[in-house]
């Protein structure tokens, strides 16, 4: 696994180890060794020789390629984002081809743009003209993953993750990060200043659903997959105001303020409001388990434990 020390990599590594054996999943990231993620190797995915050495030394037969620069950071460092997101991916695709290995690589709601149909939901196959560097790399990544399957028979698979919400590792510089930050601030300070406007609706997903979906897709019968890469998957859609209202059911004093960041607002405004995930449902049985109330109850409980903050009444308070 590359990018294993990021928000979306930290939790799947243990989940995959529980399933396939602890020693059978090697975590890697650009970051220095992370003891909790052992076995772990510091590895730059833009270095094909280093990738090849590590893959050969460990007999890699499946890659989970999660290393990337996310949307907001990518706008600040577009060339760096291009380098990591594109060179990193082509390196891993080549390695998967050479080793006849399987490859999971996630795309994103960012792969869509302002011309993409929005209502009633953004279709699986539709116009993709993103306006952010991150989105450009995600569309190109989807096409490359399809190409390596069609041209070389590599078992590439992937989903378009919505904004991911989790309490184990912090988010790494995306536009949906507010939906994680808000929980930390709600528990610690009782208030939060959001960088997106109150009516900005986006697709979101709780990390346990994202991990389960990833594993289910990788284990799906290949014969059932008409699409292979870039499956729309969805769980819930909300605005900052709606998320705050759900948090207030547990923390009635919680206050949400707004100071809109024009750059991240423009990115969010170019993304879908709701994904149509019927292809994933039909082809490999995708179904989310967490809706907004379930997400908020679990986040406040688990993050409260982590931060040693007690939420009065816990999940029961919302009922
Ligand atoms: P993150 O920023 O939290 O983590 C990315 C990791 O990649 C970091 O740990 C970073 O150190 C590592 N990395 C950066 N450059 C590297 C390099 N050259 N070599 C090796 N590692 C490098 O991001 P994330 O949320 O964990 O995202 C993982 C994947 O999921 C990405 O492909 C992202 O596009 C996708 N995704 C995430 C979300 C989300 O909401 N988190 C939503 C949609 C898609
Ligand atoms: N959560 C990601 C971001 O905001 C979407 O891919 O960048």
Summarize the topology.
Blueprint: H1 7-10, H2 12-20, E1 27-29, E2 40-42, H3 48-58, E3 62-64, H4 71-76, H5 78-99, E4 102-104, E5 107-108, H6 133-152, E6 155-157, E7 159-161, E8 163-165, H7 178-188, E9 191-194, E10 202-206, H8 207-219, E11 231-232, E12 236-238, H9 240-248, E13 255-258, H10 262-269, H11 278-284, H12 292-307
Parallel strand pairs: 1-2, 3-4, 4-6, 5-7, 7-11, 8-10, 9-13
Antiparallel strand pairs: 10-12
Helix pairs in contact: 3-5, 5-6, 7-9, 7-12
Bound molecules: nicotinamide-adenine-dinucleotide (NAD) and serine.
What do these coordinates show?
With 319 residues, the protein is α/β, with parallel strands linked by helices. The chain is built from twelve helices and 13 strands. The protein is 43% helix and 13% strand. The protein has two domains: 12-163 and 206-232, Rossmann fold, CATH 3.40.50; 166-203 and 237-273 and 290-318, Alpha-Beta Complex (UDP-galactose 4-epimerase, domain 1), CATH 3.90.25. The longest helix has 22 residues, at 78-99. It is globular. Helix 3 runs parallel beside helix 5, helix 5 (78-99) packs parallel to helix 6 and helix 7 (178-188) crosses helix 12 (292-307). Bound molecules: nicotinamide-adenine-dinucleotide and serine (SER).
Summarize it:
The chain is α/β, with parallel strands linked by helices and 319 residues long. The chain has twelve helices and 13 strands. Helix 5 (78-99) runs parallel beside helix 6.
């Amino acid at each position: 696994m590359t990018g294993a020390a990021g928000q979306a990599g930290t939790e799947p590594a243990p989940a995959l180890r529980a399933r396939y054996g602890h020693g059978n999943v090697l975590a890697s990231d650009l970051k220095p060794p992370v003891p909790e993620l052992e076995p772990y190797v510091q590895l730059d995915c833009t270095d094909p020789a280093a990738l090849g050495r590590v893959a050969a030394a460990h007999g890699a037969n499946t890659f989970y390629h999660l290393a990337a620069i996310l949307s907001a950071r990518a706008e600040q460092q577009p060339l760096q984002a291009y380098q990591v997101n594109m060179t990193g991916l082509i390196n891993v695709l080549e390695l998967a081809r050479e080793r006849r290995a399987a490859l999971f690589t996630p795309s994103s709601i960012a792969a869509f743009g302002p011309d993409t149909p929005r209502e009633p939901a953004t279709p699986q196959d539709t116009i993709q003209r993103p306006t952010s560097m991150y989105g450009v790399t995600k569309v190109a990544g989807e096409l490359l993953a399809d190409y390596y399957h069609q041209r070389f028979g590599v078992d590439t698979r992937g989903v378009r993750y919505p904004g991911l919400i989790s309490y184990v590792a912090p988010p790494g510089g995306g536009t949906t990060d507010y939906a994680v930050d808000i929980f930390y601030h709600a528990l610690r300070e009782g208030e939060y200043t959001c960088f997106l406007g109150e009516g900005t609706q986006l697709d979101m997903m709780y990390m346990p659903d994202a991990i389960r979906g990833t594993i289910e897709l990788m284990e799906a019968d290949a014969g059932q997959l008409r699409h292979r890469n870039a499956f729309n998957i969805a769980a819930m859609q909300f605005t900052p105001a709606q998320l705050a209202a759900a948090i207030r059911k547990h923390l009635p004093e919680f206050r949400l303020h707004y100071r809109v960041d024009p750059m991240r607002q423009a990115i969010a405004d170019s993304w879908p409001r709701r994904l149509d995930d019927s292809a994933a449902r039909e082809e490999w049985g995708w179904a989310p388990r967490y809706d907004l109330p379930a997400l908020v109850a679990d986040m406040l409980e688990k993050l409260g434990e982590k931060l040693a903050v007690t939420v009065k009444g816990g999940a029961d308070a919302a009922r």
